[in-house]
Amino acid sequence: MKSQRACIVLLLNVLTLTFLCVSDKALRAENERATLASLQVTPATIQLSSRRSAVQLIVSGTLANGRQVDLTRDVRYHVQDSSVIQVRDGRVTANANGDTQLLITADGHATTVPVSVTGTEHVDPVSFQYETLAVLTKQGCNAGSCHGSPEGKGGFSLSLFAFDPEVDKRALVRAGFNRRTNVYEPNQSLILKKPLLRIPHVGGKRLRTDDVAYRILYDWIYEGAQDDGAGRATCTGIKLNPGPARVLHAPHLQQQLSVTAYFSDGSFRDVTRIATYATSHKDVATVDADGLVAGLQRGHSAITVRYLEHLESVDFTFCDTVEGFQWPADEQPHNYVDKLVNARLQLLQYPPSPLCNDATFLRRLYLDLTGLLPPVPDVEKFLADDAADKRSQWIDRVLDSDEFPRFQALRMADLLRVNPKVLTDGRARLFADWLAQSIKANMPFDELVGQMLTSTGDSKLVPQTNYFAAIGTVQEVTEATAQLFMGSRIQCAKCHNHPFENWTQNDYYSLGAVFSHLKRDGGIIRPQQTNGMANPRTGQTMKPWGTIRTEKTPQPIAAGNDARQAFSQWLTAETNPFFAHVEVNRIWAHLLGRGIVEPIDDFRSSNPPSNGALLNALAADFIDSGYDRKSMFRVICNSHTYQRSTATTPLNQQDKELFSHQRVRLLTAEQLIDAIGLVTGAIAPIASLSREVAQARAAVEVRRKQLNTLQTSWEQQHVLSAQEATFWRGGFWESTPFTAKNGTEAFDAVRPPEAVMLKSLAALEDPQNGLTVNTERKHTDSMQFPKGGAASRYVYHPVIANRACRVQMHVTADDGLKAWQNGKQVYAQQQVTDNPDIYLQELSLVKGLNLFLFKPVNKGGAYHFHIKLTHVPEEGEKPGSIPELPGYHLGVMHLPADQRTPQQRQALQAFYFGQDAELSALRTTLNAEGLDHYATQRPLPEETTFLTTFGQPQRISPCVCDRSSEPSLDQALQLLNGKHVFDQVQQSLQKYGPLQTPDELVRQLYLTAFSRYPSATESKSTAAFLAASDNRDDAIRDLIWAIVNTQEFMFQH
Amino acid sequence: MLTPKWLPTYFLFLLTALSTVSAAQGVSFMNDVAPILMTRCAGCHGPKKAEGGYRIHTFRFLSAAGDTEESPLVAGTPDRSPLWQRLIANDADVRMPQDDDPLAPQQLQIIAQWIREGAVFDGPDRDISFQALMPPRQHPPAPEQYRVPVPILALAFSPDGKYLATGGYNEIVLWDVAHEQPPRRIGNLPQRIHGIVWKSENKVLVGGGTPGEYGELSIVDVTTGKREKVFGTFDDIVLAVASNPAGDLVAAGSAGMQSRVYQHGSGQMLWQARVHSDWVTGVAFSPDNQFLVTTSRDQTAKVHEVQSGTLYTTYNGHRKQLGKFTGRFAIYDITFDARSGAACTVGEGRAVRIWNPVMAQKENGDASDMEGRFFKAGHTRFIEHGLKRATLTLAAINGQLFAAGADGELRQFDIATAKPVRTYRGHSDWVYAVASVPEANLVATGSFDGEVRLWNTSTGTLIRTFLAAPGLTP
User: Fold this and answer.
1) Is residue B164 packed enough to be buried (19+ CB in 10 Å), middle (13-18) or exposed (0-12)?
2) Running DSSP on this structure, what letter comes out for residue B74?
3) Distance CA A172, CA A184 (A)
4) pLDDT tier for residue A776 given thresholds of 50, 70 and 90
5) Inter-chain contact A205–B97, Cβ cutoff 8 Å?
6) Within this chain, do residues B88 and B236 fall inside the same structural domain, yes or no?
7) ipTM computed for the complex
8) Which one of A178, A180, A200 has the shortest CB-CB distance to B42?
9) Structural domain boundaries, residue B98
10) Which residue of chain A has the CA closest to B57?
């Protein structure tokens, strides 16, 4: 029998050889086979320790030219003692206990693998967790579109990709009245009959009796359909061989994979047959159920392997010889970007396009960096410039312009959801300005992100805190942070382990725990103590991410420590695998129209970069530069890769992702509206604005200085008016939570100094109406009422009376309020209603300081209270005046300048400047007359029909996809017929009417719209058109309308 | 046993034999063709799914054109029949069954020959599904000796309380409660037995089948040990059976979502209904013989008028949105309390619902009081059973309610006061069946691991435990 089989194998080999020899490609194969230089076999030794254990060998050959080739199915295997093992397709399975040698030979090379087999005398039951569940995934049973969907299918529900073994065991065995498994007669089990299509199955044929999965399911049922019992080692990960990347050259485009699972007890097991395989590019490569990869054409594809919740990928590149391919001899890489791009292009045999011309370059550069068309004088100057390095010089010049940071701020503000509908009360402006200033100052990106992620304070005062204020829930913050800075879409992991990536549900809640302790009531962001965040499925409390990722042994975070610090440090560390890569990929995509990883915020091993070496080099450079975004723009813009023509050659037109040529891109909504404005003359060119803007800026500076000198007298005036009033209030302050036996003790404990006070409630204070606190109104509420616990919060309120007087205290509250004045309880109501005229209390103020302490009584739920003091004149007494200013500022004014805290000083100055009409007017001028006219220069978007039609994002998502780049019929109608274009074209006579000659007109128009001189033919035909028209004005309008509707105008080349 | 060496010859012989036989006798559509179509085609072209607008589960459908508007069968010429062409096509996108192995050569031969012989329908009715036209299956004998126990899905005491019937594999087993006589086994019954009703001395009503493909309701004569009569077959397993107090009607509900009532004597079907959108898990006649109530995994109980089958009302107490017991719960069993005439239903969730069909109908009201209805507390009484997981089975006797399920515990309640009476602990696996008998103060439970326990309800003590798997010792 044995010899018979050997004969057949031999015969097959001969047949194969004969067959190979006839085809041309096969001839090439034979030639290369002849130059086999060495043979590598993994694993080097094999130990099979149970009856069913098996190992997939991977036999690789290195050819004389250094290329790798998979020989797993091509070498000959000679087993010394065939009673011990057998080998098929490189898969070694056990026969009986013993030791033997496996000799592997190919083309004169040979290697030996010692094999030992033990334990075959013991039963080797199927593991529910590590085999049964794995094959349910492999056969597709628990996929999201089948029984793994939340509702299941046909009444049968499994957990998605077997992430919950308990649920699966119940569903398979006991639930449904034991309908699905039949231990007595396993082949009668519904879970076998249905996928075998022995009986109708809506999901179709999913199983064959010769599948590995069939045997595993059958045996598992036969053995009692039981789980593995407690105390079994858990799988800690999988390792693929070969990995993590492999380059194959035609005709050897085949590669066997092996998958080994590692367990917590140190053991490992070959799971090649029960792992699940998928390809990222079906047209480039396929992979079969046994892990045999077959390249179909040149290109790259990730082969992703799943085993239970573990996912790993091998990044395959398949190369083939392209007829006529020749690398251009004159192609000299400008920098490392070109070297790496070119290496990839050479490997996959795509020749690059030549560089674009100067005019195209300048227009591309201005649009990418500033969002605007280049100003006409600049175009002329650049085209006339004959310096060899003029492109570099102009790149620096544009990078140093004011417009560059503003346009980049717009793009960043899109992603950070700087939306005035959400960030009300000027907070959007504050955040947007901070972004623009930070980018202008070229703040290192790690610092910029770190400042946002760890920000604390009032979002009306601290711009960075608006990162949190802009996003709704802890979960949204978690998801947005992961998507923005880690390029990871982890939403799926909220309810179950991520289907396509190594994000588990525990990871999700661990990330969530970083932000779960943030309180952000009243737009004030402040961290509170945390233990972590609970995974709702398991109830397990997850430690915040960062603390667990940075330390090998998880450390509980110290009480009061802000988990965001550790996370931010982890995120922006040089070793972080995401941060730098994600940001350089964003910059790359901005400049080249496509990310190296695409979609740009979807980094996962199953979505490999089209040029990994390039991405790594850019990321390393970014880190080396100190996270300098501007420097990355400079590096990329200087590369030939960036400067290549959009015109393709016959040999590179199929390249979509290797950057052999630039991409033609439709102008974005903001770029387009500004370009139309500039061409029609509806908005003034930047150059002419700069003077006005500079003037307004100077005036602002002058006024600020003036006001600074006037501040003292302004303060004195208000201090005086306060002293003329009967009494004035010194602000409201919230205390830290405090446990007191009684109010008197509380009064003593929380009385000033201010240091014990948590924060001023100045924001809620109205000079006329006192203090209103309302926890129902999300953006204005302030006080937090601890649930349960004995600690209470108190509001402290100094009132300064210039003379002894009577006052009326008006109270409304839900539920009650207690009040002390100078240590004596003056008010106590457990239940108060909303009518301020009912709950009154007359009080006497002593001359000087009257210290009030309020304790809200909250019986649960949302809470509000309102306190107001009014003067009750004695007979014949004049009613007292009320100072105009909030007590908080009045209080500060009463302090000597050197005793004020920086926060007090800042707040007072902001309030003071805000009151000044002249300064406000100047600011308006600056905004209205300055760059704010330009959509690309305004970080706060204005929503117009035109802009939204062209894909202006709504700023509701951290995804770049919020900005639509899909062309639509609406867009065509807007350009052809829209009101905006019509109005602007109507105005264009102001700009072009005065130009005397048709040549001058055409020249101006082409330089503005296309950044180039018109060709002779263009000049001639345009002049002829103008001459032929009997109404010059209409003709000019028609001309401009036509230009705006050309592809050359609408697209960036 | 044939040795492998002989195998090819054997197949060859079989093939030759088959073709000779069919050639000689002609192909019967119902006996030879329909079974192939039902197993290989009906999954995509059947009652639940109609890929390409084409179905094959009745002869009317089989011979009508699908979306292609081509008549599928041309009598006498297979080569001009699209049905045949699709079975033998080379193009994988055209060939049927798609994404599956082609039909076996013998099967193809049968179909070709049937078309060649005129594509004649030899069944009684072109509009009734082949499934329903198929004769009841002949079941294999019970296992001589069990290798492993099978879950006890049905239990019933004999009217005198002397015997306990348990559902086995292709059999029911009658155990002497006093444990003096050896068990009697009645085999050649459906694979899984989900319902046993034992009301007259020697006739036992049995419901069961094969999950996913076949259900059956039949009468077994205890004295002869034979299946005496099959009331009807179902396209999925029968999960519940019942007979009315007078004993003249029997009912069954199947995982195929059907409920049916038959006359006991004549065996005629009185009515059938398909009003549930999921498995019918329980059926019970009201003590006044007015209603048949069916429960389902679709979270509803449907009340039918016994004689006509007309839907009287739907009870929605297992999917309440307001009140203390809110949530949406599958229902797994129903029983009636003979004393109060109330229906007791249970499933997922943490309470048994005790309710009255007439009151339920009144509370359902009409469209005009839609809003008010949500706020009505309703007449339902809830017994919090304290079981943490699914409750799968119920029995009511003498005003006492017994409930058990995935927790493995049996709990007893007094229905009138809704108070817990006793908890019976001992099973270490899911309990699927409970049966009681009034005179003997006995209750029996059966679990997934094949264990049956007999309890004394007056003392609460365990009388005996045994493995209901003849030939297998624990």
Assistant:
1) buried
2) -
3) 15
4) very low
5) yes
6) no
7) 0.89
8) A200
9) 15-133
10) A200
B148 → closest Cβ in A179, A184, A204: A184
Asked if the C-beta of B140 comes within 8 angstroms of chain A's C-beta atoms, the answer is no
Contacts of A200 in chain B (CB under 8 A): 39, 42-44, 46, 48
Residue type, A722: A
Q: Name the percent of chain A in helix, strand, coil, to the closest 5.
A: 40, 20, 40
Pairwise CB contact (< 8 Å): B101 & A205: yes
For residue A789, what pLDDT is reported? 42
- Which residue pairs, CB below 8 angstroms and at least 24 apart, start in A722-726? A722/A800, A722/A883, A722/A885, A722/A890, A722/A894, A723/A802, A724/A802, A724/A881, A725/A802, A725/A880, A725/A881, A725/A882, A725/A883, A726/A801, A726/A802, A726/A803, A726/A805, A726/A871, A726/A880, A726/A881
Please name the residues in contact with A675: beta carbons below 8 A apart, sequence gap of 6 or more. A372, A373, A667, A1009, A1049
Whether B19 shows a pLDDT value over 50: the answer reads: no
Nearest-angstrom CA–CA distance, A364 and A273: 52
For residues A675 and A1052, is the Cβ–Cβ distance under 8 A? no
Q: How many CA atoms lie within 13 A of A553 on its CB side?
A: 0
* Closest residue in chain B to residue A181, using alpha carbons only: B211
Please, which residues have CB within 8 angstroms of residue A837's CB and are 6 or more apart in sequence?
Answer: A810
Query: Which residues, listed in sequence order, are joined to residue A92 by a DSSP beta bridge?
Result: A55, A87
Does B44 contact chain A (CB < 8 Å)? yes
Pick the CATH number of A232-320 from 2.60.40.1080, 2.60.120.10, 3.20.110.10, 2.30.30.230: 2.60.40.1080
Residue range B402-428: average pLDDT? 95
B residues 337-396 lying closer than 8 A (beta carbon) to A:
390, 392
Distance from CA of A683 to the nearest CA of B (A): 60
Q: Which two tokens stand for residue A926?
A: 């600056």
CA dist A715 and A905 (Å) reads 12
Q: Output the CATH code of domain A35-124.
A: 2.60.40.1080
Residue type, position A91, single letter = R
d(CA A615, CA A350): 19
Q: CA-to-CA distance for A466 and B266, rounded, in angstroms?
A: 80
Chain B residues with CB under 8 Å of A174 CB are 406, 429-430, 448
DSSP letter string, B339-375: TTTEEEEEESSSEEEEE-HHHHHHHH--GGGHHHHHH
Tokens 């007829």 identify what position? A323
Contacts of A198 in chain B (CB under 8 A): 39
**Residue B445 pLDDT > 90:** yes
CATH number, position B192: 2.130.10.10
A473: which strand partners?
none
**Chain A residue nearest residue B192, CA to CA:** A179
Place of tokens 């420097």: A631
Report pLDDT digits (tens) over A909-960: 888 887 787 887 777 666 654 566 788 887 777 788 888 888 888 888 877 7
> Of B99, B133, B167, which one is at a domain's C-terminal end?
B133
Distance CA A49, CA A58 (A): 20
3-state secondary structure of A39: strand
- Is A179 an interface residue toward B (CB < 8 Å)? yes
Q: Which single residue is written with the structure tokens 């076949």?
A: B214
Same domain, yes or no, for B19 and B124?
yes
Q: What is the pTM of this model?
A: 0.74
Distances (CA, A) of A654 to A318, A375, A613, A648, A659: 15, 35, 22, 9, 11
Residue B150: inside a domain, yes or no? Answer: no
* Token pair belonging to A567: 């996370």
Is A200 in contact with B153 (Cβ distance < 8 A)? no
How far apart, in whole angstroms, are the C-alpha atoms of residue A642 and residue A634?
11
